[in-house]
């Protein structure tokens, strides 16, 4: 049966970041529960990826299962144009209560990339409505990643990112170096000179600056000083430029704070959320903004924000998100993330002694081994499976972002496998 499934997969399915003709190692999963993936051959893998960072409660959680079933009995979907429903309203209120007070409007979409598209469009339409249509450019950090759709691609690093093939057709944005100051250090003023000079010269053309606060995710798992965000906020205010935070990867506790912006106590004008929003059950994202943006756009020429996804405010996804957030907040999640972070740091520490390792770092429930050269997925994927864990490296990085329900024994197994595989390379 599974040989046939894999053959049909190979013939018809195109996997992410893979060749259609030869996707590499594909592992058939039949079910998932807790932190474990059940394979077709009966083996189990401890999932160190939380399904690309979103399954914070693990799999098949009874609380979220009940919420999904209860909503499914009422309605799975209804259009959001001209219609509202309790799950969307309750979730919007919940998000505005949890995020900075100024962020009081929520625009739902169906993926993180689209949440970024919405943020960029909000910034541009706001300035158009304000009588400054020339303010269309974005400023982004080198080594940043914001998604795979066209607008999102335009603010990903065009040199080290994965989208250089589309460089000639993407909007041309401004890029500045990411801060070098470490997470636990003060950010020197010199780190802001480049972006300060850029804003001085081009602020009349710039709509917004977009950054991943504190942690740059898929661009390199780089952790930087929250102090940079405070200084960046001041610069944006001085030059009348909006500030967008992309917390799709960091939101809902991953860095040890509910949102990474809390490390700096900075309020952006626009905030993007996704991934862990529904605990990994459903695809849903949200873009939050302040009254200045919402009212500016609404009072402008169009009289409305010109965006509207078909599955916007999907009731099933919104009900799932409510259950996931309530579940998170009902538990001592901060202590849990701190515990996982300590165990990741301790478990990965031996990798520092290996010649092929450039750096080992951790923050919140994120643990990273950075190598001196890129990883070959065809080589390392079977090595991890043999050791009973699921880890999906990229570039020079072998990293873990486990579900928050992972116990200490499983974290130890995960980190030991990571160090062991690196040692064999």
TrEMBL record:
Its cofactor is pyridoxal 5'-phosphate. It catalyses: (8S)-8-amino-7-oxononanoate + S-adenosyl-L-methionine = S-adenosyl-4-methylsulfanyl-2-oxobutanoate + (7R,8S)-7,8-diammoniononanoate. It comes from the Bacteria. Keywords: Aminotransferase, Biotin biosynthesis, Cytoplasm, Pyridoxal phosphate, S-adenosyl-L-methionine, Transferase. One of its GO terms (biological process) is biotin biosynthetic process. Its EC number is 2.6.1.62. Catalyzes the transfer of the alpha-amino group from S-adenosyl-L-methionine (SAM) to 7-keto-8-aminopelargonic acid (KAPA) to form 7,8-diaminopelargonic acid (DAPA). It is the only aminotransferase known to utilize SAM as an amino donor. Homodimer. Belongs to the class-III pyridoxal-phosphate-dependent aminotransferase family. BioA subfamily. This is Adenosylmethionine-8-amino-7-oxononanoate aminotransferase. The gene is bioA.
């Amino acid at each position: 049966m599974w040989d046939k499934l894999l053959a049909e997969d190979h013939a018809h399915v195109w996997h992410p970041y893979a060749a259609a003709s030869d996707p590499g190692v594909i592992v058939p999963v039949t079910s998932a529960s807790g932190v474990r993936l059940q394979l077709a051959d009966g083996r189990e893998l401890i999932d160190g990826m939380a399904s690309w960072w979103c399954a914070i409660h693990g799999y098949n959680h009874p609380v979220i299962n009940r919420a999904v079933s209860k909503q499914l009995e009422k309605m799975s979907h209804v259009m959001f144009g001209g219609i509202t429903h309790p799950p969307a309203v309750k979730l919007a209120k919940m998000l505005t209560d949890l995020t900075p007070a100024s962020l009081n409007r929520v625009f739902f979409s169906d993926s993180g990339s689209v949440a970024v598209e919405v943020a960029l469009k909000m910034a541009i339409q706001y300035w158009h409505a304000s009588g400054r249509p020339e303010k269309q450019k974005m400023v982004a950090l080198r080594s940043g990643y914001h998604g795979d759709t066209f607008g999102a691609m335009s603010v990903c690093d065009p040199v080290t990112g994965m989208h250089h093939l589309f460089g000639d057709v993407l909007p041309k944005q401004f890029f500045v170096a990411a801060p070098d100051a470490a997470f636990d250090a003060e950010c020197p003023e010199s780190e802001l000179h480049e972006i300060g000079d850029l804003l001085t010269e081009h602020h009349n053309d710039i709509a917004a600056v977009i950054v991943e606060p504190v942690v740059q995710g898929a661009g390199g798992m780089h952790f930087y000083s929250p102090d940079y965000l405070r200084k960046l906020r001041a610069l944006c205010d001085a030059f009348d430029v909006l500030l967008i935070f992309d917390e799709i990867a960091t939101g809902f506790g991953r860095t040890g704070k509910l949102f990474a912006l809390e490390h700096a106590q900075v309020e952006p004008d626009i905030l993007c959320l996704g991934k862990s929003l529904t605990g990994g059950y459903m695809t849903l994202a949200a873009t939050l903004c302040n009254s200045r943006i919402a009212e500016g756009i609404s009072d402008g020429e169009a009289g409305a924000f010109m965006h509207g996804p078909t599955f916007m405010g999907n009731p099933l996804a919104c009900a799932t998100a409510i259950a996931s957030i309530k579940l998170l907040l009902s538990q001592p999640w901060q202590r849990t993330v701190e515990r996982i972070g300590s165990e990741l740091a301790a478990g990965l520490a031996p990798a520092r002694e290996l010649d092929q390792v450039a750096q080992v770092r951790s923050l919140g429930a994120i643990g990273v081994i950075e190598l001196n050269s890129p990883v070959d997925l065809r080589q390392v994927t079977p090595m991890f499976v043999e050791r009973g864990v699921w880890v999906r490296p990229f570039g020079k990085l072998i990293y873990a972002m486990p579900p928050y329900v992972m116990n200490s024994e499983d974290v130890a197994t995960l980190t030991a496998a990571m160090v062991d595989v690196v040692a064999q390379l």
